[in-house]
């Protein structure tokens, strides 16, 4: 059964193709590939019309949270998906998630479905605090995941071709969108409950690779606002639109000019 509650550190690094290849060779004696193999992760992030969640996250506060629906394959209205509340407090990531049909996950966030169980109640309460919460962005990426041979809780993921779109906010069909990251780079995320193993510390030190900040959703919102500035207004977030029948190089910091435009909306 998939894990539904997480408490861990998530540390991000930007890797070139050569660095990734060298790291994967070192990992062979310490890590195992995830049982599900390579996958395309699809997310629909929810936010307010003024992008309140994105704005708060960009300020790097002591506490922040995101609400999203995630699937690992195309999802129709009756397909089980993960509904997730991801919180970060003082550098520690706390994630709560549950499995629901896609239409039920959307109804729960929209306040038209009563929550069942503790995790659903927590997510529904978080969603109720944000006026006008609605689907804001689809973000997808190609992922390869690994876990430690001696500790299944220690995980490493490589994300490539991080992409987004602000129209057709559906998990069905194609995952295509505007690509936010260079084709020859990967985003490494190290996920651990405590410290990193020495073999990984030694590798990162020898390669001169340092941790950085990169928010996939934050970068996607920055792209949307830059596009709006260049081409004019885009459609506002709309729950009504979301409920209609569904048709069949990495930068370690988001651009401040775009995020300033988010703040100016409020």
Task: Output the keywords.
266 residues, 10 strands, eight-stranded antiparallel barrel, alpha+beta, 8 helices, globular, 30% helix, Hypothetical Protein Pfu-838710-001, single chain
What would you say this structure looks like, in words?
The structure is a single chain. This protein is an alpha+beta fold. It has a single domain, classed as Hypothetical Protein Pfu-838710-001 (Beta Barrel), CATH 2.40.320. 30% of the residues lie in helices and 35% in strands. It is built from 8 helices and 10 strands. An 8-stranded antiparallel β-barrel has the order 1-6-5-4-3-7-8-10, surrounded by 5 helices. A hairpin with an 8-residue loop joins strand 4 (63-71) and strand 5 (80-89). Helix 1 runs antiparallel to helix 5 (198-207). The radius of gyration is 18 Å and the shape is globular. Residues 240-258 and 260-266 have low confidence and may be disordered.
Number of separate strands: 10
Give helix and strand order, one letter per element, not per position: EHEEHEEEHHEEEEHHHH
Mean pLDDT: 88
- The end-to-end span amounts to 41 Å
The rough form would be described as globular
Category from helices, strands and their pairing: alpha+beta
Please give the CATH class: Mainly Beta
Counting H and I runs of at least 4 residues, what is the number of helices? 8
Multimeric state of these chains?
single chain
What is the CATH homology-level superfamily?
Hypothetical Protein Pfu-838710-001
Looking at the overall shape, the CATH architecture is Beta Barrel
Strand content: 25-35%
* CATH topology-level fold name: Hypothetical Protein Pfu-838710-001
Compute the number of structural domains. 1
What does the radius of gyration come to? 18 Å
Low-confidence stretches: 240-258, 260-266
Query: Order of strands across the biggest sheet?
Result: 1-6-5-4-3-7-8-10
Task: Report the helical percentage.
Answer: 25-40%
Sheet with most strands: 8 strands, antiparallel, barrel
